[in-house]
Every structure is written in structure tokens, then in C-alpha cells.
Amino acid sequence: MGSMNTRTLGVALLAATFLTSAAVARTDPAATAHPDKWPAAKSQGLVDPATEAFVDRLMARMTLEEKVGQVIQADIGQIKPEDLKTYPLGSILGGGSSPPLGAPDRSPQKPWVDTARAFREGAAQRAGGTHIPLIFGIDAVHGDNNVVGATLFPHNIALGAARDPALIRRIGQATALETAAAGFDWAFGPTLAAPRDDRWGRTYEGYSEDPEIIRQYAGQMILGIQGVAAQGGLLQKGHVAASAKHFLGDGGTENGHDQGDARVSEDELIRVHAQGYVPAINAGTLTVMASFSSWNGQKMHGNKSLLTDVLKGRMGFDGFVIGDWNGHGQVPGCKPTDCPAALNAGVDMFMAPDSWKALYENTLAEARSGVIPRARLDDAVRRILRVKAKMGLFEAARPYEGREGVIGAPEHRAIAREAVRKSLVLLKNDGVLPIRSSARVLVAGSGADDIGKQAGGWTLSWQGTGNTNADFPGAESIWAGLKSAVEAGGGQATLSVDGAFDRKPDVAVVVFGENPYAEGVGDLKTSLEYQPGAKTDLALLKSLKARGVPVVAVFLSGRPLWVNPEINASDAFVAAWLPGSEGGGIADVLIGDKMGKPRHDFTGKLSFSWPRTAVQFRVNRGDPGYDPQFAYGYGLSYAKPGKVGPLPEVAGVQAIAPNATQYFVGGKTLAPFEFKASPSSSVQIAPVDAGNVQEAGRRITFAGEKLGRLTLVGDKPLDLSGHTYADMALAFEYRLDAAASGPVYLSMGAGKLDVTPPAGTPLGQWATLKIPLKCFGDAGADLGKVVAPFDLSTAGTFQVSIANVKLTAALSGAVCPPKVR
């Protein structure tokens, strides 16, 4: 994200900037689409005489200020309901980690409903003018995933393995009902990306590497979420608006880099990445979200040939295009607070979470001056009002909002459990599955009793981190599901995360895998090896095998990973993906009856090819030299078993996990980072207890004899520039042990901030400080070349203890200390 300052350049200069960048885009043939090459489509049910006449009457009464307001969307963490009495904005959103008003970020239904009503009431209190209802958007990407108690469906990568379009429609219907019941009007999904490089941290948001499944699912999910647009009043029927995303090519970026560049031909862009949009548009999707990424060097938010000529022209899309989180600010010549180029290219609504106020003022000035043509603004507003009319937002009735018994409803959980069963893929089974329900079963592994881990990213928080089982009322962990199934058959189930036991079990089920992550943070760089370096989960599998215990591995992941050693150390290996809230679906397939007869068979088939080595980043069906370990479509079953012999254990890459985000955690500096004190005569470091953990922190004492610095330094400069747009923050825990006698600074490169504790700050109390990376960038840091991500300095006396220094999602409570020039 960029500066929050208001515009400093004149309108003429802005016009020149826009025209120059537009001219460059038009003359770049590699990033210019040819509409006649693209498949034709047509929005169904969005345009009709009655709706258009209604919109005509509204627009005839609207002021220019009101029209500009319609194209701006702000985040609930950055706007207050009373702001809408002045600013006639068209939309608000609840970002991945933005809490409802006056409530924790992990909140159940009522605070969300109260928040929606508060913003609608604020907008209704604007004096005079034409009142247009807000549309409230939220990321409901695997259920209504921001709301405590909601049903969480398996992530899309799992659903792709289910090969069941009818199931997809039912998931969409259940998601819509729960989303509407929480007060939202609009779900930012489905993702129609075709991930082609498994290093991408959003791989799990894609149904498949191959457009075949995406084509089958896209329209069904749209119809499930929205219903049939032609019927109108969708919100009153328990539906919400969908958003097909991200247009276009986000799954094809070079090296799987999030928000990167898809360097592919137009033919490949069409054949692989555009296929889901035809059925989505034909099904009546009301919105399409533009991608952060670029196509052959041009940012999608500024690509008129694709957004306007192809999407709205050739593909007949009559809804509106929403930008992504300050994505317009990445267009050359733009910043989050000012970007006529994006609107002129075809973005109809800016997603401007924290930049909305200055963006409104600048966009209004540009509409007045003609930098943004009045016809283009009117087209954007017409599209937005059309969608609001079709949604039924102009009608007062909201029969599902606040309705009890909808969120986490048993019938929705039953659909999710069915989806878990159908998405499991059996990679190996040497006769150990199914497990007799009368057996003595040991359940082990870090993922066994962790609902947050089995749910993955985009779960109650943006990154899916910081969750406990208590945050998921009504949900079931994998352990709980296994225990219930085993005990129902007269067997005995024991949970032992580390695999310890007193009495030898008949079989062990070990649940392990990736910890939650989301965009940007989840990107891998050099290897697809699972747990490179200290392979603790492999050691657990081998330990059980060495004690003569048959081992069933249940692997949780958001992408295919190189797990050949783990597969070799297991008697059965199940790809369980990120199953969501209904862990019992795994027991339905793994645990048979008392005699070991299956209750449900494996039906899942791989929708992503699995790598033969840890450096086989791109292994997609149809590619030249296609040679995966497990091919697209692979999947064993009880009815059709198969033999998997020993797999090669040559990773093809040095077993070192790249680390750009974790610096000092749990009392340890994590490679490649280390503390450096300069000069050592003036700065002393000593272990200290933190968080009730022995020596989990470090006490830093500055003697004040001369300027002292305490830094965390890696082995090479870090590129943290992408984490800025991912809204990341440098976070650490601290305890003031002795007041500072002079200014205290925290730096990241040339970005220097004043973090001097205010007079009267209590001593001896632990607190957390979170500073968005953009604050260091605004202060002058080159975030593409960060040598020391933590650099604390003072020339005075000072004593402070610190713990857990890392990058994290910039949640509520983040602050931006004053810059030091």
C-alpha cells in the first residue's frame, strides 16, 4: 500500500501521467488482448428493461459526488458509520482480519449483524441527496469463514479432488445462507485460478491445475451462491452476490510469485486461465474481481484490453468489476489514494480499504476535470446500481439477516462432512486401511486435534493463524471424529501428539502437515520439500514403525508437496488437504465397521499432479516432459487398490527452509538470522523468561556511553516488498525494564521510526507492538533490500526485554510510530 496523503500534483499533471501510462499499455503487444480470439459469453439475467429504467431514474437524480462515492469501497477497520453521513460511499468490506465494530476479531453472528446495520444506518442518515444502499462484502471462500461458529468447507483444492459439480452448488447455497445470516451481501468468491506453480501460496484456493474441473465448477458455484439472477431479490431468497476471481492469470505467475507476472502467450491465457469465466458469466455472476497480478508486465488493474475489451465486450459481462485490496495502487503512475488509470481501464469499484477518503477526493476532482470521462464513470455506476437492484438491496426486507439456526446448521455441516469424504485421495495403502472400529487406535501428530490447522488460511483471520479449538464451536477435530467412530465400534482411541504409548496399539493414525497461511506469506521459493531440515514428522512416523506399529499418515496441505520419505515411512498415506470444520469426514472413510468392512470408500482423484522431486515446481497435465510422482487423476480406493513401492528420496535441493518472516521465536533465533550488538561494550544481551517459558526472551541493556544498536541480521538482503501489499507488520513482544534516557529508534534500512516509550509507561509488563511494513517504507526503507529486519538503537540508557520477533498479518492494534528524518 502507498501513502495516505492527499494529492499534491495538479489535475493537469495527473492527466498527463494517466495518458502516458495508457499509451505505453496500448503499444505493448505482449500485454494487449485481441478480443476476437476469446470465447464468447453473456451475462444471464442482469439486464432487463425494468431494471435499466429503475437505474436511469436513480442516476438522473444523483450528483457527481454521489456517483464517485459509488465506485469507492472502504474497510470496516478504517471507516466509521458516521463517516457515511458525509461520504456517499457505495460499499464496505470486512477484510480478512478486520473485526466487527466494538467486538473481537473472532466474533459470532450478532456483532457482525450489528456492524452491518450500523453502517447501513450511518449511510441512511446522510442529509439530502439520493440514497443508495451499501453493498457489504466479505471473503467467504470456504464457508462464511470470518464468523465464529460457521460451517467451514474444505478449501477448493480439496473440492477439485471430489469431482462433483452438484456438490459444489450445494456448498455455494449453504455458504450463501450463512453469509446472508451474518449480515453480508456479497461473498468474494469463487476463485477460478488455475495454479500452475505449486510454490504459489494461494494454490489451495484453486480447484485444479487443469481448466477441465474449473469449467465444471465455476457456473455451479455461482448458481449456488447467487441463485438465478433473473429472478431478482436474491438477498431475500437467502443468496448473496458472488465474485469470480481473480481476472486474470493469477495462477500462472512466474515462479509462483503472488501478485507477480504471468509471462504467457495470449493463447495460453485463454486456454488455461480464462476457462472458468465463461460458465461463471453465463451463470450470471454479478461481480468479477481484478487480479493483483500482471500479464506480460502490465498490471491487470490497468489492462483495458482485458477488463473492458475482452471481459465486458467479447465475454458479455454486464456486472461490475471490483478491484483487489489497494490493487489499483500498483498500476504504474498510481498510488492507493489516486488512480484514474484503473477506472479508465475498466475497474468499476476501487477496493480502497485504508485509502478511501483521499481516493474519493482525488477521483472526484478527476471526474470534474475530465481525466476520468463522465461516460466511463456513468458506466461504472450503472453497473453497480444494476447489481444492487438485482440483489434486492433497495428492498427493506432481509429475512435471513440475524436468523438463528442458519450459521453452522446441521444440514450445512452434513454437506461439509460429505465434501471431506469425497475429497480424500488415497496415495498408498499396504493393507492397513480400513481400520476396524473395534481396534486399539493411537492418534498422533500436530494436526490431530487442531481445528485451525485442518481449516488452513482464511479462517477467522486472514492468515488462519492464532486460532484455538475453542474458536470453533460445533466443529469437530480429526481426533474427535476418529475417537467417535472407533468407540462406536467398541474400540479404543488414544490421543498422543508425540506418539508415546504404554500399551502397543493395533494401528497409529498420524495427522500432520502445513501450518495455516494465506497469500504472499504462503509463497515458497526454492523447494517443495515438506519440513526441510529438521524433519520431525518423518521422525515420528519412523519411530512408530520401528516399534512395530502400522502407520496411517493423514497429510494436511494446501498444495502438492514432496513427501516421498513420509510416504515410504507409512503403511497408508492419505492426502486430506485442508478439510475445514468437519474432521469426522476423515473417520468416515478411514474407520470401517467392527470387522473392518468399509463404511465409505475413497472416491477422490488428484486435481493437481504431485512432484517427483522437491524442485519439480511446475508439473501439470499436458506439459512437455510430464513426469509426476502421482499423476493428475490418480487415486486408489478399497474397491480398486494398487501397489506403491519404495519412492526415491532424492529431493534435488539442499534441505534448508527459506525463512523471510520468522526472526526470533520461542527463545531461538531462526536461521539465517542472528543477534548482533554494536558496540558490545555498550549493548548487552541476556536470556529472560517470557510468556511463562524459560529463557524465551532476551533482555537488552543499553549503557548509554555511545550510540548502541541491537540488530537481527540474516545472511543476505530480504525482499519484503511483496509483504507490504500483503498488509504485513513487524511484530514483537516487549517489556520495559528501565525507562529510556533519550530517544529510542527502530529501523529497517533507511526507514527509521521513533519508538521511545512515553513517560509513565509501566515497567515490568509485557505488551505487543505491531508496525506495518508500509510505515518503514514511508519512512524511506527500501523494502526490496532489507539487511536487518529489526534494528533497535539509542544513545541513552535503556533496558527492554523482547520476544517473538516476526512478520505477521497487520491485525487490529497495529500502529505507525513517527518517522525520523
Mean pLDDT: 93
Number of helices: 21
Helix % is 25-40%
Q: Spans with pLDDT under 50 lasting ≥5 residues? A: 1-27
What is the total tally of β strands? 29
N-to-C CA distance: 21 Å
Beta fraction: 15-25%
| Approximate shape | globular
Rg calc:
27 Å
Task: Write a compact overview of the structure shown.
By secondary structure, this protein is of the alpha/beta class. Helix content is 27%, strand content 18%.
Question: Which helices and strands occur, and which strands form pairs?
Answer:
Layout: H1 11-26, H2 49-61, H3 64-70, E1 72-75, E2 91-94, H4 109-124, E3 135-138, H5 156-162, H6 165-181, E4 186-187, H7 211-226, E5 243-247, E6 261-262, H8 266-273, H9 277-282, E7 287-290, E8 294-295, E9 298-299, H10 304-314, E10 320-322, H11 340-345, E11 350-351, H12 356-369, H13 374-391, H14 410-423, E12 425-429, E13 440-444, H15 451-455, H16 478-488, E14 492-495, E15 507-513, H17 536-546, E16 551-556, H18 564-568, E17 572-575, H19 584-590, E18 662-665, E19 668-669, E20 674-678, E21 683-690, E22 693-702, E23 708-713, H20 721-725, E24 728-738, E25 744-748, E26 751-754, E27 766-772, H21 773-778, E28 790-794, E29 798-809
Parallel strand pairs: 1-2, 1-11, 2-3, 3-4, 5-7, 6-8, 7-10, 13-14, 13-15, 15-16, 16-17
Antiparallel strand pairs: 8-9, 12-17, 18-19, 18-29, 20-23, 21-22, 22-29, 23-28, 24-27, 24-29, 25-26, 25-28
Helix pairs in contact: 2-13, 3-12, 5-14, 6-7, 6-14, 14-19, 16-19
